[in-house]
# Entry
Amino acid sequence: MAKQKITVKVKGKSVSYEGHPERRPRDLMDILIKMAVAESAVLATFRENIDNHSEFSDEQVMSMYKEAKAAREKKDRAKGGSSSADAAAPASAPAATTEEEKPQKIILTYCGKQLSYQGVPSGKRSAVLQLLSKQPDVTQTVAVETFRTNLPGETATDEEIWRLVEMLRERRKAKGQSKSGAGESGSGGTNHAAVEDLVGMSEKERNDLNDFIRQVLGQPTSDVGLFSSDPKGRNEGAESPERTGTARKSGKVTVYLQEGNTSATKLITATMGMSFAEFSSNVDKKFGHHMLLSFTDGDDVLEVDDDDVLNVYLEKVLEGDAKKERLICTNPEDAGRDGDEQLHDARLQSAYGPQVVATQAKVYSNGELTVTEDRTYTGHTLAVYCCCFSPRGDMFVTASRDRTVRLWNVRTGGCTMMKGGHNGFVLSCDFSPKGNRVVSSSDDRTIKLWSTSSCSKVATFKGHEDKVYCVKYNPSGDYIVSGSCDNTVRVWNADSQSKLATLKGHSLAVFSCAFSNTDNGKYVVSGSDDRTIKIWDWSLSRDLKTLVGHIGTVWSVVFSHNDKYIVSGSMDYELILWDTATGSRLRSMDGHKTSVHHAIFSDDDKYIFSCSRDWSVMVWRTNDGEHVETIMGHLSTVYHMDIKSNKLLTSSLDDKVKVWTIKHN
# Structure
């Protein structure tokens, strides 16, 4: 069998390498030894990473581990009198360049700088390590990312890379002391040791590399924590002088802010990797009030409303001309103003770009329903990602980008913040069917349980290895299901907080999950960034069906109350109704102009409600898919909804929550 890219999880970190799948168990043992994993953790790590782990007894697993450990110790002894530094130094290569490997232009990237030297590819690993060892302030994170950026095919672990850098530092320091500082050179008061002889490199190659290192290290000190700010890379060689729109100083990016549909601009500085919350706050300070942010990509207008989209925009600026890649800043009040109280298609024009039609929906009704807005609730300071009614409908809970979970009184509009909150954006929340608990999840990788009477934290669930995008109770409140960017779905005991099942099958992040209803949650449905929907028998950890039909990320999935149907919403703008029993696609509903974030059934399953980045909530008849209503009122993306009897609850990027009344005509 051909080699494949294999990834294992060890000590909370992902380790990738090229290998043969059938050798994965023994490869894992080698990795455990190299990473000095405690013997007590071997069995658990093996069971987590090996799909067919049930075929191996505990004794067989530990026997493999001991064999691998003995082989490693024997190999170390065979090295004889080699010093630890020599053992950790880059592997030796032939002193002369082989005929097959001729000198060529080699590019190295470090802290946003790229320069070239003439050399052979086999010497690049040594060059990278020498470069890192000569930077006194380099951190382990930067060292590892620099190594992997320049040597993408390498399989060394993070710890091994850092150990190599540290040992080369010690080796260079010892050499420098024995030579009383000989060989050092510098200018302008900055001295750097000359590059040692690198095995397999010619004298000219060493000189070129030495010049490169001096140029990199001789620049004004940069914030190495901002390394890898341009992950897609640049053109080889020096940066083009035409890239005048972006200022690359200490990893910073100059952004041109265009106010509304005018040609007036302001300047602001951003850094790759900065959070959307920080960036948005800086923009708001620049204008003196809150602004909605967007940019043009071809014929589309994309709202900048989270970290991922912000980084997409900043990368777009880096790759082009900042003056042309302007960020469109719109006052929410202007965006929502129209004589007929309808949001019209606003044409946003950039001085250097094409006109693009914005993607807000328009109010619509076929007369079947009457929808009225009861109240707008304010209190959150940033986007409200999730909302959920209490079982009696007299309260609701919200989860926000401002890192808070809040409990609201529907009648009075008052809210209480849960005490002891998350350390990241709160992405999801749900009320327990008993009404005494609330569960929430966050990009801090945790799930938290709260008391609704004291608004204090009851417990924290840990286990996911990445952002937890969704949490839901089963109908009895005994279980909680969660979906995460670690590609798994997990089921937990709500009372003991113990993990009952880990469902693996999605190849990318899981953004939505829910229990079935009529059987007290025997089944779970999940939607993923891999564009598929899966139905699970979670007690058996079995993937029963995979529903394929969306061509974009699946943001939302839910069973109907009678469990006959599943409705899904996607980044491809489409809603799809599925037959639960057969997994077949019954119909699709097209109407939204942008990504569909959430979709749910009415209490009687007669209607489907969907919300989107087009600022709208749309209502559809379940039996024939007819578009019944388009509800407008929020001034930005509508992220989430809940329904209790004839009341609709919505939450939005505009920081607001609204309650609506729905009547049948």
Observations:
- Confidence is low (pLDDT under 50) at residues 79-100, 181-201, 215-250, 336-358.
- Residues 58-78 form the longest helix (21 residues).
